[in-house]
Amino acid sequence: MAGVQIDGLEKKFGNLRVLKGIDLDIRDGEFVSFLGPSGCGKTTLLRSIAGLEDINGGQVVLGGQPISKLPPAKRDIAMVFQNYALYPHMNVYKNLSFGLSLNGVPKAEIEERVLNAARILQITELLKRRPKQLSGGQRQRVAIGRAIVRDPKLFLLDEPLSNLDAGLRVTMRVELANLHKRLGVTMIYVTHDQVEAMTLSDRVVVLDQGKVAQFGTPLELFYAPQNLFVASFIGSPKMNFLDVAAQAAGDKQLKVSADDLFRDITIALETSPANVAGPHKLGIRPDNIELVTQDEAHMSGQVMLVERLGTESQVHIRLDNGEDFVAIARGTHPAATGDHVFLKFPAQHCHIFNGEGQAYPRELDAETRSLIDRQKSLHGAAQKGEEK
Amino acid sequence: MSGVYDRQYQRQKFVEKLTPYLFISPWILGFFFFTLGPLVFSFVMSFYDWPVVGDREFIGTQNYEVMLTQDPLFWDSLWVTIKFGLFFVPFNIVLGLLLAVLLNQKVIGSGIFRTIFYLPSVISGVALVTIWAWIYSHEYGILNFLLGLAGIQGPNWLGDPNWALLAIVVASLWGLGGTMLILLTGLQSIPKELYEAAKMSGVPGWARLIFITIPMLSPMLLFTFITSIIAAFQQLTIALLLTGGGPLESTYFFAMYIYDNAFKHFEMGYAAANSWVMFLIILALSMMVMKSSSAWVYYEGEMKKGGNKDA
């Protein structure tokens, strides 16, 4: 087991820079997800760590040893592929043992390792079957088993659940989390599904066009996004944004105003902002918007559509300035298409971004802060457990 | 009323059923008149003494008896063909596979090489033979000229019974572009993740070829195996034009033997009987190969009953 350090990693396909200087420090035993939209470079980054792609600059260090120049087999890394990549002409046992037997592992040891992996994954009774005779979930297990038998320092998983149906995906997600706990090995997981990333990971790397947009715990990404990209990418429905102007207002405070806003909003920050000139963006998540009466409201608009999901209603609103917002109201909220509604943006839930799209770190309420701290410390505790 | 309606309905149904057959009728007619017809006709012919001019006479199985018991040329030509096949079939497949593997590498200009290797398969047989006649020529041939530069006195390739068959094997291997192309398509349909997974677990290149490429390619290998056997038995053009069966009948192929019986000796009935024997031999060989295939061919689509349990 080992941590992974990535320094200034660069990757080009022809003239196209797909990875633009990636720096990451992944701790020993950590479960880290690479999250981002298609084409953000997450799979390329994973394949670069695996050694399946030659890199054009920077380096990768695994367990203190630089591995960028080593062939994939020498890196002590196992990878689970998106489409499983099982050898279709071999039965499950052969699929698990194939690599080992060619690397001179004694037969008895191979059998022990294969049976052990099969037991962990509960596929012992499938060992004689061919991949064709397995269900999607079973194939996924075999693919993971092929990684386990190698007892590697690092697991790489490339969208391993994306080919499964929704129900099975949830089951396998839980199993993956348990597997990580049980093996205690460092795992890197590529996904475009933020639910998977948020639920499985100790920390998440959000990638945007070949750069790290933010590297933090799931709750940090949600409550303290560092930039517009992370703010709009994490959370569903997406965060709403409004063009505003900002001015410093007293100690660690920012006053936000706009022609469209009925009244100013004063946002508490962690530090006093240095320069607040230029255009800003105000961000607010749909579930933080309150539908209120006129005297409390910041803006008003017309309801275009109400999607009723039972526990909540997603209200699509066209604001008076023409912007489209989504607000989440309680399941039985009476809002109907065509209604004129008044919206309130509670200051403690507002995010504020400068002209470059960088967020001002806002002061979080005590509850959120302690939750984030706990997520960080939980991981720290797990760390110490592993080291024993 | 309902009777009329029923009849109309039946008529409509009949027309509907007939339509697809009308559409494929040109092919069906072609098959009956130009494939099945001659096939049956030749089978009937093989029981006759059937000169091109003169009276035909039903002689029962006499053609077959004579061929098997009294005609040494039958056995000699069959032996030549088998010897040829023993060289041609394995070389055709192994070289075709090696070329396909090489062309499957991501190398600049692999498209050009692909075309070059396939080119001989497009060239007319006669032109091909002319080129090889020039290469093999004893006195003026380029092969012996090159050997001479290395200080080697080249043999009379086409005039020496020890070399002539080999010379024809090499010349016919020139057309392995077709085999190569089939195997190349097969190679390109193997998911590249299989190789990446193998690379990650430290499987060396030779093992990837033997344990992944060849099993995944086995349906194509089976196909080329059978078509190569058929091609070996049908070998005629090159030998006919390059050596004419000589020297000392060392390249007198079975197909040439049939050709001579039919168009030199005008024994149509006898030639028909020869052809049926060739057909039965090819059929038997193909069936043996197919039978064995359940042990070594892996089909992605379905599991073959019986064999193929564990690779």
UniProtKB/TrEMBL annotation, chain A:
SUPFAM superfamilies: MOP-like, P-loop containing nucleoside triphosphate hydrolases. The keyword Transmembrane does not apply. Transmembrane segments: none annotated. InterPro entries: AAA+_ATPase, ABC_transporter-like_ATP-bd, ABC_transporter-like_CS, ABC_transpr_MalK-like, ABC_transpr_MalK/UgpC-like, Mo/tungstate-bd_C_term_dom, NA-bd_OB-fold, P-loop_NTPase. This is ABC transporter ATP-binding protein. Belongs to the ABC transporter superfamily. Keywords: ATP-binding, Nucleotide-binding, Transport. CDD domains: ABC_MalK_N. GO terms for molecular function: ATP binding. It holds the Pfam family ABC_tran. Residues 4-234 form the ABC transporter domain.
UniProtKB/TrEMBL annotation, chain B:
The keyword Transmembrane applies. Pfam families: BPD_transp_1. It comes from the Bacteria. It is a multi-pass membrane protein. It is found in: Cell membrane. Keywords: Cell membrane, Membrane, Transmembrane, Transmembrane helix, Transport. The chain crosses the membrane at residues 21-48, 78-103, 115-135, 163-185, 206-232, 238-259, 271-290. Residues 78-289 form the ABC transmembrane type-1 domain. SUPFAM superfamilies: MetI-like (SSF161098). Its main location: membrane. Signal peptide: none annotated. The keyword Kinase does not apply. Gene3D superfamilies: MetI-like (1.10.3720.10). PROSITE patterns: ABC_TM1 (PS50928). Belongs to the binding-protein-dependent transport system permease family. This is Sugar ABC transporter permease.
